[in-house]
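Possible regression after last week's pipeline update?

I re-ran a chain I had predicted before the update to compare outputs. Posting the input and the new output here so someone can diff against the archived version. Not blocking, just want to make sure nothing changed silently.
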Amino acid sequence: MRKILVVGAGQSGLQLALGLQSRGYEVTLMSNRTADEIRTGRVMSTQCMFHTALQHERDLRLNFWESQAPKIRGLGVSVAAPGSFGPGPSQRAIDWLGRFDGFAQSVDQRVKMAGWMETFAQRGGQLVIHGAAVGDLDYFSRVYDLVLVAAGKGELVRMFGRDASRSPSSEPQRALAVAYVHGLGPRPEHPDTEAVRCNLVPGVGEMFVMPTVTTSGRADILFWEGVPGGPLDAFKDVRDPAEHLSLTLDLMKKFLPGSTRGPPRSN
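New output (post-update):
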């Protein structure tokens, strides 16, 4: 039986480890955090899995949250009209909603990664909590038949240089800020359709609104992508959740009036 090491316990590393495990390989999974540390830690990202990706999870019997997560039936795009910022009805140069043939879903990565790590161990996999370093490679090469690096950061990842032909930008093109909230009302134009909404403000940035399931149940993700140095690049020194939410609401009122209903509260 081939012995395989997977370094990194994110979406790709965990699914790879569990898939190889289901095919009878002896798999070791290496993570720099325990399942409990992931589950109780800070929000790691936004995420949305579409029909094909969800089917891969079903095939591996990993779709544990399918009955709990909102079924996202559509994708909406809105583009603010020039000069439409401020109070009053939204002025949108473009506003449409497309509906999917198969639904998408979003599960907070803290919920999914922690659950999958525990499942991997329960199914007989060896879980090692260790931050892999370059100095470990000699040991890895002697013990394992194959080493797969599926991590997103860390010393090992820095061995793989940026491919300029695939990534022309050497500096971040957006300043990111995310909040998971409860109590967000439906979009007035499609109150009966769960959808990911992409709200674009030319020259300023974007806001994505995404239904999800998180550690505290059903929620919505408010995700800002701000042009660096612009008005949405305002969260760098914000550490308090209430302050983050207050700033988010102020920016929504200015740049996305009428895009949502209801007074959300931070998670």
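Follow-up from reviewer: compared with the archived run. Helices lie at 11-22, 35-39, 51-59, 109-122, 137-143, 241-255. Marking as no regression found.
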